[in-house]
Amino acid sequence: MRFGQMLPPAGAPRDLAMAQLASSVGDGAFVVTSALFFTRVVGLSTAQVGLGLTIAWLVGFLAGVPLGNFADRRGARGTAVLLALTTAAAVASFLAVRSFTGFLAAALVYACSQTGLTAARQALLAGLVAPAERTRIRAFLQSTANAGLALGALLGGVALRFDSETAYLVVFAVDALSFLIAARLLHRVPAIATTRRTAGEPRLAVLHDRPYAVLALINAVMLLFMPLISLIGPLWIVTRTNAPSWVVASLMIVNTIGVTFFQVRVAKGVKDLRTAARSVRYAGIAMLAACAVFATTAAPGLSAAVTTAVLILAAALLTFGEMKLASGAWEISFGLAPADKQGQYQGFFGTGPAIARMLGPAMLTTVVLGWGPIGWLVVGALFLGTSCATGPAVRWAARTRAVNEDTLPSLVEEGVA
């Protein structure tokens, strides 16, 4: 696939994709270099870094819905531009802070800005793109984002290779610049209509929408696949298998390449709530299969070459599950959100990654690394069971609100569980 084919049609969707690309380059560089930057350049202990980031992402998690609501009321484009700028300012401030207090303040701004920016961009996409095209365009953005993460990780890898204060400072400066570029690109897209809260209506209506909350929780549980790729899988490889250490990098490579080149193709089959729920169910099946394959790599007698091949297969299955999950989740999160409250609804649905990052590492480390192959199967069964709950939850949510007249009958008659 050529680069041009990875981008959505010209106009607002392409500007959104290029903004996503720019900010993702910064995100990729941040993820790769942040731990060493904060310990070696800022001068913090690993405990301080862990505590500061945990507090920051917890506050960011809580800020998602209010910032999404702000985007609805004050304008999604202006909010997205503002939050891209505050993200850039937070990253730039990391270049100067040399104390835990300063680090924590900058990390709080960074986490809240990132969470709010995601909600505002989703609201902007919902307002600029016809409902039937939202999942397809969102798939383009996801593909572009993964390409940006890969470029950013490569940049971060260069800094790690030099392992000097200057190298890390340059990378963080580029990170800040990437969000300035993203702000400029977001400013180019058309503004969308703002909404007003009617008398007697809850300020944050999404917090009173129980069916949507259940679906957001289901999505958060499914997103536990993220620590499997970034943390649990690598730890499993180096402690429980005889595969060479470089295979750890192959997990992320397979994941990044897979999403970059195939997310748009996978998302083509999702066109309504029925096909979205089916896509999430297929994600559960693929994730169960991936966990089962991971479990086999602990078997004695496997050669390093065979173990490596099996691990790559497991990564591919997990990546396919990720793409099916994302495709279904986008359609569900957009399709069941009121048109005038997309910001707060996307902010609420978007808390899933924060929950997975906060709770996943400790829980999955205990289950997978503590229980071994059985732990992998337990996690896989959790994915499958959760994915199968999506269909009933979607039907429940559809009955409580107005949905496309062609979609609701298909949900009731054919079933999606």
Could you explain the architecture of this structure?
This protein is mainly α and 417 residues long. The chain folds into two domains: 7-196, MFS general substrate transporter like domains (Growth Hormone, Chain: A), CATH 1.20.1250.20; 208-417, MFS general substrate transporter like domains (Growth Hormone, Chain: A, Up-down Bundle), CATH 1.20.1250. It has 16 helices and no strands. The protein has helices at residues 12-41, 46-74, 76-94, 100-128, 134-162, 165-188, 210-222, 225-240, 247-267, 273-296, 304-335, 342-349, 352-371, 373-388, 390-399, 407-414. Helix 1 runs antiparallel to helix 4, helix 1 runs parallel beside helix 5 (134-162) and helix 3 runs antiparallel to helix 6.
Any descriptors?
disordered C terminus; 0% strand; globular; mainly alpha; Growth Hormone, Chain: A; 2 domains; 417 residues
Strand percent estimate:
under 5%
Order of helices and strands: HHHHHHHHHHHHHHHH
Low-pLDDT sequence parts: 404-417
β-strand number? 0
Under the CATH scheme, the architecture of the largest domain is Up-down Bundle
CATH topology of the largest domain: Growth Hormone, Chain: A
Radius of gyration: 21 Å
Largest beta-sheet characterization = none
Helix content: over 70%
N-end to C-end Cα span: 34 Å
Q: Which class of secondary structure composition applies to the elements?
A: mainly alpha
Mean pLDDT: 89
Task: Kindly give the count of domains.
Answer: 2
CATH first level of the largest domain: Mainly Alpha
**Number of H/I helices:** 16
CATH-level-4 superfamily name of the largest domain: MFS general substrate transporter like domains
Oligomeric form = single chain
Shape: globular
